[in-house]
From TrEMBL:
<feature type="binding site">
    <location>
        <position position="128"/>
    </location>
    <ligand>
        <name>substrate</name>
    </ligand>
</feature>
<dbReference type="InterPro" id="IPR033132">
    <property type="entry name" value="GH_1_N_CS"/>
</dbReference>
<feature type="binding site">
    <location>
        <position position="426"/>
    </location>
    <ligand>
        <name>substrate</name>
    </ligand>
</feature>
<feature type="active site" description="Nucleophile">
    <location>
        <position position="379"/>
    </location>
</feature>
<keyword id="KW-0136">Cellulose degradation</keyword>
<keyword id="KW-0378">Hydrolase</keyword>
<comment type="similarity">
    <text>Belongs to the glycosyl hydrolase 1 family.</text>
</comment>
<dbReference type="InterPro" id="IPR017736">
    <property type="entry name" value="Glyco_hydro_1_beta-glucosidase"/>
</dbReference>
<feature type="binding site">
    <location>
        <begin position="433"/>
        <end position="434"/>
    </location>
    <ligand>
        <name>substrate</name>
    </ligand>
</feature>
<feature type="binding site">
    <location>
        <position position="304"/>
    </location>
    <ligand>
        <name>substrate</name>
    </ligand>
</feature>
<dbReference type="GO" id="GO:0030245">
    <property type="term" value="P:cellulose catabolic process"/>
</dbReference>
<dbReference type="InterPro" id="IPR018120">
    <property type="entry name" value="Glyco_hydro_1_AS"/>
</dbReference>
<keyword id="KW-0119">Carbohydrate metabolism</keyword>
<dbReference type="InterPro" id="IPR017853">
    <property type="entry name" value="GH"/>
</dbReference>
<feature type="binding site">
    <location>
        <position position="172"/>
    </location>
    <ligand>
        <name>substrate</name>
    </ligand>
</feature>
<dbReference type="GO" id="GO:0005829">
    <property type="term" value="C:cytosol"/>
</dbReference>
<keyword id="KW-0624">Polysaccharide degradation</keyword>
């Protein structure tokens, strides 16, 4: 914290700071067969035996498709100023190509209108991992054509919503789409092909650039176009040259592979060298890097925990402790000589270490990496084993502590010169947590999965107070009277 602050000093944010929450379509919407929607890769993956915990899936999720008005009213009750949500590509364009299905777009039109009526700024993410299955059947993200299909889809959604939505995000966490989807196989579509994961990364980059161009052609110039990256805070285990080299390799694979072309129009030469035995990168065609390197109006950063690495011990043989699920296949192509370590400290239910210094470091890195580019924290949050007490309240003091620490880190970064303009808590609601099913609760609002009733947790009341006042309540902040649960 700044030297002028003490632990007792109120942490106050700039007046225009956005206080938001975030969700994604497949995790909350349900209604997977309504309105002409066809399967995405996550429908297919989650219905494949053994791919998700307990065989759970998002067919109903938390039924946001039918309960969106109540959910927006809940956001308004909490005093949120912004809501980041994603569009289901296969709800809007069921085959991933051709004309839009208007009933699908109408759902998002109604959602946007409801948000604006409640004074909540909508922020649209075009792609949060749910590729239409027909595009995967044609090869998915390793195929170049998928990037062009994404640009067509971006134009459709931009034309439909661009008059009312000012904040746009092309892709959410393309690292996960490429390397967990096509490398380790722990995410949809569940492929385990190192070369394909690198091709997917490039075509996701190309999709971002083409999509940003399509959005700008379809929308008013006042609108903001961004991307959300889950850039890793990679730390070496020691200052030994071998450990420093390991950290550089993982930094290239986690960060440089996306921010290199997006922000600077180049891939790191060290990335090419590290992966030369896997791919020759011949799919990077003339003009691709210029197409990817579109000017951004903002950059979204998603952060949960830092990454600690060293050079691998040749004798070591054990699970890869990178926090990205269990698989015998690595999401780090060309990095078999790198070992991942659990960082010390308290952990969330995901097993991720709680370390707000990583968020401060990440913000300051991109303040240097892209000077003058406004930043938003588009995801940050924690999973805990939340349960209602006998009175029906859900107390989650651990999440309050987590949020206080990370928001204080954001404020320190602002004091250090970073232009951070908003924070989107992950997540508004407990939801389908991908391959973990419904066992990991990230929500500030508790969802009873048997009834789908919503109950704001202690952290929701705490965050509401922060959003309304612009000042962080104390970690020991007492609960406000509970908002009524919604059925």
């Amino acid at each position: 914290m700044p030297e002028s602050e003490t632990p007792e000093t109120p942490v106050t944010f700039p007046p225009a700071f956005l206080w938001g929450a975030a969700t994604s379509a497949y995790q909350i919407e349900g209604a997977v067969r309504e309105g002409g929607r066809t399967p995405s890769i996550w429908d297919t993956f989650s219905h494949t035996p053994g791919k998700t915990a307990g065989g759970e899936h998002g067919d109903i999720a938390v039924d946001h498709y039918n309960r969106y008005r109540d959910d927006v009213a809940l956001m308004a009750d909490l005093g949120l100023s912004a809501y980041r949500f994603s569009i289901s590509w296969s709800r809007v364009q069921p085959t991933g190509r051709g004309p839009a299905v208007q009933v699908g777009l109408d759902f998002y039109r109604r959602l946007v209108d409801e948000l604006l009526a409640q004074g909540i700024k909508p922020a649209v993410t075009l792609y949060h991992w749910d590729l239409p299955q027909e595009l995967e059947d044609a090869g998915g993200w390793p195929e170049r054509d998928t990037a062009y299909r994404f640009a067509e889809y971006a134009q459709i959604v931009g034309e439909a919503l661009g008059d009312r939505v000012e904040q746009w995000i092309t892709l959410n966490e393309p690292w996960c789409s490429a390397f967990l989807g096509y490398g380790s196989g722990v995410h949809a579509p569940g492929r385990t092909e190192a070369a394909a994961s690198l091709k997917a990364a490039h075509h996701l980059n190309l999709a971002h650039g083409l999509g940003a161009t399509a959005l700008r052609a379809a929308m008013p110039a006042r609108n903001s176009v961004a991307v959300s990256l889950n850039s890793s805070v990679v730390r070496p285990f020691s200052q030994d040259p071998a450990d420093l080299a390991a950290a550089r390799k993982i930094d290239d694979l986690a960060n440089g592979v996306f921010h290199g072309p997006m922000l600077h129009g180049v891939y790191p030469e060290s990335l090419y060298a590290a992966t030369e035995l896997i791919t020759d990168w011949s799919y990077v065609q003339d003009g691709d890097l210029a197409a990817i390197n579109q000017p951004l109006d903002a950059l979204g950063l998603n952060y949960y925990t830092p990454t600690l690495v060293s050079a691998a011990d040749a004798q070591a043989d054990g699970a890869r402790a990178d926090g990205h699920g269990a698989s015998s296949f690595s999401p780090w192509p060309g990095a078999d000589d790198v070992a991942f370590h659990q960082t010390p400290g308290e952990r969330t239910e995901m097993g991720w270490t709680i370390d707000p210094t990583g968020l401060h470091d990440l913000i300051m890195r991109y303040t240097r990496e892209a000077p003058g580019l406004p930043l938003y924290i588009t995801e940050n949050g924690a999973a805990y084993d939340d349960k209602p007490d006998p009175d029906g309240r859900v107390h989650d003091p651990e999440r309050i502590s987590y949020l206080h620490g990370h928001l204080a880190a954001v404020r320190r970064a602002i004091s250090d010169g970073a232009d951070v303009r908003g924070y989107y808590l992950w997540s508004l609601l407990d939801n389908f947590e991908w391959a973990y099913g419904y066992g990991k609760r990230f929500g500030a609002v508790y969802v009873d999965y048997s009834t789908l009733a919503r109950t704001p947790k202690s952290s929701a009341h705490w965050y509401s107070q922060a959003a309304r006042t612009g000042t962080l309540p104390a970690v020991t902040w007492a609960d406000a009277p509970p908002l009524a649960a919604t059925d």
